Structures are given as C-alpha cells and as structure tokens.
User: What shape does this take?
Amino acid sequence: MAAYRVIILGGGFGGLYAARAMRNAPVELKLIDRRNFHLFQPLLYQVATGSLSPGEICAPLRGILSRQRNTQVLLGEAVDIDPHARTIQLLDGGVFPYDSLIVSTGSQTSYFGKDQWRTWAPSLKSVEEATAIRHKILYAFEAAERETDPAARAAWMTFVIVGGGTTGVELAGALGEIAGRTLKNEFRDIDPKAARILMLDAAPRLLTAYPPDLATDAEESLKHLGVSFRPGVKVVDVDGAGVSIEDEKHQRERIPTKTVLWAGGVNAGTFGRVLAERTHAATDRSGRFMVKPDLTLPGFPEIFVVGDLADIPGPDGNPLPGVAQVAMQGGAYAAKSITARVKGEAHPAAHFHYSDRGDIAVIGRAAAVARIFGWHLHGLLAWLVWLFIHLMYLVQFQNRVLVFIQWGFQYLTFSRGARLITGSAVANSVNPGPTMRNLAEE
Ligand SMILES: Cc1cc2nc3c(=O)[nH]c(=O)nc-3n(C[C@H](O)[C@H](O)[C@H](O)COP(=O)(O)OP(=O)(O)OC[C@H]3O[C@@H](n4cnc5c(N)ncnc54)[C@H](O)[C@@H]3O)c2cc1C
Assistant: This one.
C-alpha cells in the first residue's frame, strides 16, 4: 500500500511541533520551509539590540529532524496550491502531492496599508530585519557623536518605537539599557543616557493583552530606563526625517527622528492569501483563517491551518493571540488528528482546546511582567520565570548553553557582545540603502 503523504508548510513553532508529534506516525512526512532554519522569534529583539547573535536563536531544521526517519526536510517557498488535486507548488516549479496538509506559514508585519513606511521603520520578524534594526540603533549613536548641529544631533538621539505590545516593550526596555548602561563611558561628545526613547500606541495603555496592574508595572519599569509612553496616538506618516502622529483630537505633531522601529500589527503572508483564494475559505480582517474547531478548513478536512495564520476563537469569543504556545499546541493537535485518521482511530479530542499558560514580557535586567496560570508576577521573579521558559524552549541543547553563558555574562557586566554594525555603515541609516529595500520586497 502506498505511504500516506503529509506535507507541513513552515518550520516555525506550529510546523516544527507538528512534525515532532508525528515522529512515530506511519506516514511519509515532508516539511517544507523557505528558510533552512527554525527561528526562535521571541528572542529576535535580543539580536536587534546586540545581546545575542543570530546563530544563537536559530537551529537548522535538517539537524533538528535528522533522527526522524519518516521525515524529509525540503528547502522551498510554497507559492500555490491546488486543493482539489491536493498538490503544493513551489517557487522553483516543484510540485508535491499530499494526502494531508498542515499550513503553518505564520504572519508578516502589517503597516496598515502603508508598506512604504517599511523602508524607514523596519519591523522585527526575521533575522535580516533584526540585524537591520541593530545597525540602525548603533549607527544612530555613532552619527550623533559626530554631529555638531544640535537639532540634527537630537534627531539621531531620538528613538521611536511604534506599538506598545510585548515586542515594543521588549525593544524599548533593551534600548533603555543600551543607552543608560551598555554605552556608558564609551562616547566623548554625547551622553547616550540623554537619548529620548518614545513608545507610541493608538491604544489607551501598554500591553493591552495583559491585566492592567501588570501593564502599569511595565510602564513604571520602562520609565526607570528612560522610556516614555504616549498612548492614544496614531502614526500618520513615516519618512527618513521623522514620524508624524495624530492624537484622539486629531491634533498632528511631527517628531524629528532618524530611528523609527515598527512593532505594530501583523497580517497573513502571501501564501495565506493564495490559500484563501483557492479554497474560498473565510478570513478575518488580518487575513487569518476562520478554521473549524478541529483546525481544518471548511470543505477541506485534509487541510489544517495552525499558528499565527489561524483565527481560533478563545473561551471569551475573541481570537486566541498570535503566540508561540497557540502555534505549538495547534501543530501538535493537527499531527494527532492526522495520525489517528491514518490508523483509522478516532481523535481523542474532536475539538482543539488551547491550554493557556500565560504571557511574559521582559523589560530589562531582572525586570519583567508575567501572567502565569492566573498568577500576576513582576520584577525579579517574573524575569527568572522568563529566563527559565526561554531557555527551555530554545531548540537545540547547544543554543541553550550558549545563550545561558551570554546572559550570565551580560547580567554581571551589563555588556552586549553582538554590537556589530555590519554591511555598509551608512546604507541603512542615512537612506534606506539596498538592505532595507530588499527587506521591503520580502
Ligand atoms: C519579535 C517577536 C517576538 C515575539 N515574542 C513572543 C513571545 O515572547 N512569546 C510568544 O509566545 N510568542 C511571541 N511571538 C509570536 C510567536 O513567535 C508566533 O506566534 C509564532 O512564531 C507563530 O508560529 P507559526 O508556526 O504560526 O509561524 P512562524 O513561527 O512565523 O513560522 C512560519 C514559518 O513558515 C515559513 N514560511 C512562511 N511562508 C512560507 C512559504 N510560502 N513557503 C515555505 N515556508 C514558508 C517561515 O520561513 C517560517 O519558518 C513573537 C513574535 C515576534 C515576531
């Protein structure tokens, strides 16, 4: 009898956990990703702020799954699907048939229809973007040191972060530490501590996904690091010289700055849009699929959509958040469903049930806020929990050891070992340059 063919698209949290959950399943499994590595996105901000190097938060998919005999890893970008013939087409023309498909291609940054802002305000979604942000931050201090015009120097010393969610908070906290601690004593004409770090959000408060008391704690901790937060403002323009904002009374203001970092919303990537077109499946405003309770698409019981690309209603009726745990549990659930089908058994759970373990945002050294199994933690305790969880979930033992050593060293010395300005020193900061243009095309 021909082997049962399963394809997983995407080796992120959803795809990788699905593949691992099928290690003993009687299937022929192909995991296809356009990258040859799994990226631990929750630590991207540490690459962007010079704490870790890209290699420490990535692990080659081939290596991770090398012992899984039923699994083949393929490098390729899915660009089309024929859901009736059950085939996937890759960018290079390769066509792969499947009996069951798990789509976990994640999300991409949304600039709310103003994609041209990406040129000036990189987001934090890939290794390339993280190193571009690192470049922008470090270059700004270098340029300020050499600038003699006070207004131009102030623009180099102003950092604006758009978005007050977890990524925005983590970026802002790390920037505050760079300015206040890491770069202390390293410049002669500027005082890095005088950097103005501003977070903006249209929402009335920080961290809207967290309980109010934890958001207030986070704002206080950020204040200590020199970060100020402006709620209730919308970004209306971004260019090479600054950002324009509008408040709730429609008052506009211009903030001159050379460094705008985008930690705003996300939407479905290109493949998600193609899948919606081909299956006529309903999607929400961000392009996420309104999946059935068993995570399949209506009319296509062999297609599962998991992770950031799926809109799964939570207990309160609102969609579950786009976080790693939702993707990992969704991937594992889809894998179990397929395995049960192949074996002709009933799935132990007809509906996907998300077990919410909580959220954590780190603000800086020994400072974090966490909601864990209903408990509200902050300060050192929350930070230790964050440390433990992130080390535990980092893929590959070698990465865990390296990151543990780096963090230990940084904790004692306030240093950041990966403070490199790579590529052309000027390209990303003075004008968009080739790197940022390429990112815009991603
Ligand atoms: C900066 C940042 C910080 C975050 N912090 C946290 C946090 O602290 N805690 C938390 O729980 N979550 C966090 N998240 C969210 C979490 O990372 C995501 O929810 C999770 O990665 C979603 O998993 P996924 O499998 O759906 O997608 P991803 O992990 O994004 O994986 C998608 C994979 O699909 C591949 N792919 C995409 N398109 C194609 C294609 N057409 N063909 C082939 N392959 C393709 C990509 O290369 C990628 O490997 C953070 C995210 C970011 C960006």
Q: What stands out?
A: Residues 427-442 have pLDDT under 50 and may be disordered. The CA atoms of residues 359 and 371 lie 5 Å apart. The chain has 13 helices and 25 strands.
